[in-house]
Give the backbone structure.
Amino acid sequence: MTEVSQLPTPLDWTSDEIMTVVAARELTGEMVCFVGIGLPSRAAILARSTHAPDVTLVYESGCIGAKPDRLPPSIGDGVLSRTADAVVSVPEIFSYWLQSGRIDVGFLGAAQVDKRGNINTTVVGDYDRPSVRLPGAGGAPEITTSCGQVIITLRHSARAFVEKLDFVTSVGHFEDEALERQREKHGHGPQVIVTDLCVMRYQRESREFELTSLHPGVQIEDVLAQTGWPVIVSDDLQETAPPSNEELVALRGFTEGDQASR
Amino acid sequence: MNARELTLCEAVAEFVHDGDTVALEGFTHLIPFAAGHEIIRQERRDLTLVRMTPDIIYDQLIGMGCVKKLIFSWAGNPGAGSLHRFRDAVENSYPHPLEIEEHSHAGMAARYQATASGLPFGVLRGYAGTDLSRLSPTIRWITCPFTGEELAAVPSLSIDVSVICAQQADRRGNVMMWGITGVQKEAVLSATRSVVLVEEVVEEFTPHVNGVVLPSWTIDAVVVVPGGSFPSYSEDYSERANDFYAQWEGISRDRATFDAWMTTHVLETKNHEEFMASLTVSLASRHD
């Protein structure tokens, strides 16, 4: 590790790697994080193994305080239960732990997302006769409304970033002010979307996700072309800090041989 | 009445009937695959299947035409791909139309809890603003009589038979599971009948951290099937066969490939031992 960080030149990285690294940076300190499967799990494990060792990872399979040293292919992998501080039943994880407000951050993926952070993981096309049937809701609807805040991570494409969702599986933010205030009693919903192109953050005033940071080498036009709504670009648009060698070495260490990576 | 020890063939013949509502529960860990295969061999039809996380075994049951309706909250092959037989049924009504009733995990968990508790419905703070709550007749709103808060109500389930895996039974037919235990306890306590597959029978249990024990009188049949959760796993007995989950993508994508695989490995094998042996043979022949 020490030798690597002394390398004179930065390592090359892929767009998937910067997405994972930047999503991981959103987890800090002693946050308690409810982790979704796939990209979120990868980022959460990276955070714990680099800058945020005191983050508590909670999985919907009932594993509280899991300390995986490799990427589990599913949220019910033995590496999660064997390293957890406690393993509880699925009804308990959703009622005593999630619904009760004990989770700081929910970390989710999505098939489709809109400008308010609403998520679709149910169908593409008509519900009764879908062109693509997706897995469905899972834990997401209550994760988005019960956690203190939510981080969403997914690959950026025009098919994923849409003006109108085919199906609202999980609500990001309500259009209606009264409903939005009601939901804020229990959690602030999605606050950041991390993709392989950029970072978008939720702005309470505009009620939209705005483009706040471009990954190195990405142009505003690239993001606009892959987003189905006219994105508001922040006045304070930043360039994302590239992945450090340490972050990349850690990430590559535990994703080696990972079947879920594409 | 205490649980009886039966063979898997006997237990499915006696407890799983055409038209039943059946929950083969398990959350990644302890999934009763061997029981699903036996249900396919005995050609059960018109089943309503219940499961929070339908995976490959439900894909097989759907693809083999055993299923009329699916009640679920997340249907996928985690980390590996889609459930292609489930998708073919929903997208193309193949091999026949599949009725679906879907919820979130929190909603399904509340339904199981309510059912195990003998209540008509469960309550949760959930579903607000979602299309599921707009479309589903099984999500309604109630007002808390004490605080006035609007909450979601979901009906309890009517499960004829639940089938789960546990690591051990003792001589009296009590069963114990540990590791990730999901919603299996609630599934057994929600069902009229229940069957538990175990890795082994022991004289006396050694307590386990996070161990869950179901007393013998809550179970109808105990079936000893070592490795019966394959390709899922049984903590301290087996590892999850992640390769098999990855291979399922290729086996299940095409109807003919799926049919051929099911014929060779399930229909033409008599029991779980033969099923496992058939996989070893096909793995060996691939290396020729």
Observations:
- The longest strand of chain B covers residues 159-170.
- Chain B touches chain A through 55 residues (CB under 8 Å).
- Chain B is about 35% helix and 25% strand.
- The first helix of chain B runs from residue 8 to 15.
